[in-house]
Amino acid sequence: MEGCVLITDIARFSVNDGPGFRTNVFLKGCPLRCAWCHNPETISAGPQLYWKRRLCVQCGACLDACPRGAIRPPVSPELGRDPDSPCRKIDRTKCDLCMECVKACRYDALQVVGKPMSASEILDEVERDRPFYDNSGGGMTLSGGEPTAHPAFSRELLAGARERGLHTCLDTNGFCGFEVLEELCGLADIVLFDLKHLDPVRHFEKTGARNEQILDNLMRLSRVHPGIWIRIPVIPDFNDDFAFHRRAAAFIASLGGSVGRVDLLPYHNWCQDKYDWLGTDWAYRDVEALDPSFLELHAGIYRETGLGVTIGGSGFEETQTAHGP
Ligand code: SF4
Ligand code: SF4
After folding, report:
1. Predicted structure pTM score
2. pLDDT score of 321
3. Residues of the chain with CATH 3.20.20.70
4. Which of 53, 55, 62 maximizes ligand 1 atoms within 8 Å of its Cβ, making it the mutation to test the pocket?
5. Does the N-terminal peptide bond of residue 145 adopt cis geometry, omega within 30 degrees of 0?
6. Which fold has domain 48-113?
């Protein structure tokens, strides 16, 4: 087993990440740097430290516990809780993530992000909801972060799920060697494949990587895997224009019958707290969430091309297929 993969969450009862009720396993670590990322705690593969200002009573116990002098002195609780105040509890340039402050905090205001778990521990947790999977056609969705960044661990987890008779989905950005992708997808009943942009320069500008390998992987995968769902995060001023979606629909339709549907995922900013807890900023802080109804016309482009489509990842009617009803 791969030594030190960390988990940020095991989220139960998802209905947006594959068929039926899903339990989503979020691995830490991703090679892309999407500017709009709504799971910023999964980008780094290592442990991180949350400071939740709303829980902090400014007692000062963490100040005494920190061996690195990385904790700032208490201020008034009112000032500390005010999100517009300049108060930042941790000087992250000094912090070495020893987590002594977490042990000292009695209010859960300081928390470690990233829990080491073995594949069997994760699967035991996932299996708790087996009755719901059986009734809904659900199962486990392996997500992140990026599962292909941890090939050995992801292989063990997906193979273990198969051995236990669990339905499996793999959520991937496709940015890896094809051999890794093909092997892991071979252990997944459905592949949720992210498509962000078709233009390599625009892709690089917002994710830190060009997309040639991703698109090539998708084309190759569509020839060998029978169950691919394309997921497009629709981001304001990046890929929310009709011209992009017309090109994307034509490209996806050209992949053939292995693509079961397209999910348009409207940009949201519900992750704002996570950025604050990590003490980082993001380029989309002041960008308003997209109303899902805004994507009805976009969805129409895919329907006209004969592709089944959802807005948000749920509500797919089985009469929709990749190439029309
Ligand atoms: S120990 Fe916890 S509650 Fe007390 S000042 Fe530190 S973070 Fe805030
Ligand atoms: S993790 Fe360690 S170094 Fe960082 S602030 Fe906490 S006690 Fe200090």
Report:
1. 0.93
2. 45
3. 6-45+115-311
4. 62
5. yes
6. Alpha-Beta Plaits (3.30.70)
* CA-closest candidate to residue 278, choices 52, 5, 36, 10: 52
Q: Which of 6, 30, 24 is nearest to 99 (CA)?
A: 6
Measure Cα distances from 289 to 34, 221, 262, 271 in Å.
16, 32, 20, 11
What pLDDT was estimated at residue 1? 47
Query: Which residues are registered as beta bridge partners of 50?
Result: 111
Q: CA 116, 283, 37, 226: dihedral to nearest 10 degrees?
A: -150
Nearest CA to 42 out of 122, 131, 150 is that of 150
For Cα atoms 283, 286, 289, give the angle at the middle one, nearest 5 degrees.
100
Q: Which of 49, 59, 103 to mutate to test the pocket of ligand 1 (most atoms within 8 A of CB)?
A: 59
Specify the ligand 1 atom closest to the Cα of 89: 7
Cα 166 to chain centroid, rounded? 21
- Report whether residue 113 contacts ligand 2, using a CB cutoff of 6 Å: no
Q: What is the pLDDT of residue 315?
A: 65
The total number of residues shown for the chain amounts to 325
CB of 90 sitting under 6 A from ligand 2: yes
Average pLDDT, the chain: 94
Q: Ligand 2 centre from 111 Cα, in Å?
A: 11
| Chain centroid, CA 248 distance in Å | 21
Pick the closest to residue 173 from 320, 43, 288 (CA basis): 43
Residue nearest to atom 8 of ligand 1 (CA): 56
> Which run of H or of E encompasses 80?
helix 77-81
Which ligand 1 atom is nearest residue 74's CA?
5
Cα gap 128→262, rounded to integer Å: 30
The architecture in CATH of the region 6-45+115-311 reads Alpha-Beta Barrel (3.20)
Low-confidence ranges of the chain (pLDDT < 70): 1-4, 315-325
